[in-house]
Amino acid sequence: MKRVLLKMSGESLMGQQNGGIDPEVLNAFAAEIKEVVQQGLQVAIVVGGGNIFRGMKGAAQGFDRVKGDQMGMMATVINSVALQSAFSNIGVKAHVYTAIRMEPIGKFYNRDEAVEALNNNEVVIVSGGTGNPYFTTDTASALRAVELNCEALLKATRVDGVYTADPEKDTNAVRYDTITFDECLSKEYRILDLTAFTMCKENDMPIVVFDFHQKGNLAQLVSGKKIGTIVRN
Question: Which residue ranges make up each domain of the chain?
């Protein structure tokens, strides 16, 4: 792989905390990404905001859905700025782009500028979702992966792939090395939300589900080793 979109959940930044950002986890993730960037991989990142605020949860608690989603977008910007800071501390140049205007916190997203930064081997962090309510960061990651001509969307999780059943509940669950989009749909495996999943399927964008919490997995994955599950047409 030469260019990928890494989709991280906001919850992954919490570590063992109940919310917020665990600096040790944040720095560990930045170090893992630095390793592959130094090997020449071009990396774009979309990170969620669930460790701070999730729009749909807010709506369930009585927030106006549009306002809740806007709060969730801002949560993703906080996480993105934290990632940028972690990269800066270890000598990796990274840019935060926002889907809504938020200068000087981040640059207003421009596809051509983002591609230029990737070509310069600089990390691109795209925040603010799509900039619209009712769309998740899953959809934002699919959109940016297609838009930036990435070779794959890497979904960083705490499980090592897609299984026939929940491996935490069923000891007989078997992990797939590869599975098709159509199989995932027919078996109702929820890899990304349906809008994001359909966008990847229609644009022939492979999704790789892998355990990002296992040290070294990202480097092994992009070097061609069988890590996680590949979802493709």
Answer: 3-232
